[in-house]
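Handout, section 4.2: multi-component inputs.
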Amino acid sequence: MTGWKAMMSGLTAELIEEISASKKEPTWMRDFRLECLQLYKQAPLPAWMPDISGLDLDKIVTYVRPGQAQTTSWEQVPAALRQTFSELGIPQAEEKFLAGVSAQYDSELIYHRVQELAAEAGVYYSDLETALQTDYEPVIRQHFMKLITPQEHKFAALHGAVWSGGSFVYVPAEVELTLPLQSYFRLNAKGAGQFEHTLIILEPKAKLHFIEGCSAPRYNVASLHAGAVELLVGAGAKLRYSTIENWSKNMYNLNTKRARVAAGGEIEWVSGSFGSAVTCLYPESILAGERAKSSFLGVTVAGAGQYLDTGAKVRHQAAGTTSVIRAKSIVKNGGSSVFRSSVTASEQASESKSFVACDSLILDEQSRADTLPAVVSKTISFTSAHEARVGRISEETLAFLQARGLSEEAAVKLVVNGFVDNFARELPLEYAVEMNNLLNLEMQRKPITGKEKQ
Amino acid sequence: MKPRLWSWLPVEPKVKKKQTQLSTVSVSKQRVIVLMEKQQLPKNWEVVAGQQCQVVELFESGQELKRQTKVKVQAGASLSVVQIFSGGHDVTSDWEIDLQGDRASAQVQTAYLVHTQEHLQLTTTIIHHGRQSQSLIEAQGVMWPGAEKLWRATIDFRRGCQGSSGSEKEQVLYWQEGTIKQVSAPLVLCQEDEVTGTHSVSAGLIDESMVQYLKTRGLNEQIIKQMIVRERIQKIISVIDDEKIQEQVCQQLKTQL
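Output:
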């Protein structure tokens, strides 16, 4: 594998210091990384996690070694992935970047233009390393890994030790950025990838839409992704955070995302999980101020060999807070999907409300879909409602569509597209189109019907 | 791969040092089995093919109690469990029902009143093995400030249980404002595509607009709340096949409201 150097000595303090020095980081950040390294080494794997025995934690150092060209040859990219790129109609240069063949994808101009437009509106937007060298360093120090602490779990500690890349956005009070910021356009920023850290701060009454990831599958020879996203939403501010993650099927995606919302603020999560071997992803909203709101809309599609454990968490900590969680899962070809939700209401969360809905569509008898919702309330004036449904496409629906002239395959596709329609509507047009293409492609790979088994 | 629960969700019931000594009740040939406090069913038993069986569990005296039961339900058989909880400091009831035969069915329906300082822990797992098997786990409850309740319901559709359906639902009413601990965890595990599993939970204070409306009809607030609660719990009581037991349960609950 070109440009890769396997280091079997494990993750050491020397390596962490080397990473920190190469990034010219302030001393506090270096010390923080070293502290996290200790925590990582001591922490056990979380007891509730799915099986990740396929992940070789001793080789993590291979993924974080700075200065290594993490590229491979086009021939080494799995044939199925190359075919997916081709069928999705992705430009060739972009294909090679997404496959890890090229270190550069020509989005630099777009990134700088977006940066300029943001700056004109008074918004600061850059990668986190660059921001650490600016006047924003004290702000970053105040908030970095305070919402997601390294004590939380083993992979949060690992992230704290080896984080690299990611985005920093600062939106001053009462500023509204009308165009969405898209991290996709700076995917080729140095170090973006495995352990990126996103820190977004919205001052009171600010508004922002941030889009992370892309719907095309992204291949990387390294198989662990342990990013972290920390979002601070000020009083009366509104943040929409959209994510489409489609990692290649060798990836263990163990991402942690959390938002803290002040009084009258609002966080909207739009989350699509399509790829990876194993995913554990539960964006969490802490509704800390009165009348704070959160909403989560998620879609998970799990195919052969995939175990996608996704969902959302909400902590109601103040009066008059509201939350809505809506999730959809599609499983097929032996894939497994787990939806988890956790809604907790503290004693202060009087007059608060929560609604959770999750639907799972199982497209064949080899697949598995589980729903594990939980509601914990410590106040009597907290109103919560939850509903869920697991099942397959009904014979009646398929028969009705076939009677209208559709083939069985087309009928299944139509139902699946309708199933995720609410999600697609929340995405910018180009993302929605690409996601629909991806979904259709996945459906084509193996026609699935309810009659197949009979 | 069966998912593991988040660590904060209690997987095993609390183990208490002092527990009520229970005597075992015979289950043979009885259509309705009434389990009073200090009684329990055998740890493992079965409802044979074609048989219909109902178990009525009554919790009322305020004692600490822990019951665990595993039942296999054979083809065409049905098991109905009615749990009435109207008092108890620390009560744990844990049912595991395996619908082994085709067209086997099980219903676990619970009515509970959890008062201040009381702690109720209900765990029900229904496993679907047989084809066209059916399950229902339902709870209707009322909680007072200072009460603690954990309701865990799991429907597990195993591979091969085509045509099965299962439903979990819980409705919790809060009697008045205050601090409580209310945990609801309705889980659906599914390995089979030709099944339907649904669950729903709702929890909240008694609808204020309904209370106001009934007040205008000349009723006082206490009576209105009692009416609303009784109406909900009556749905569960009416499932009991024996009228005498129904009457006994109604009297028991009347004193608690």
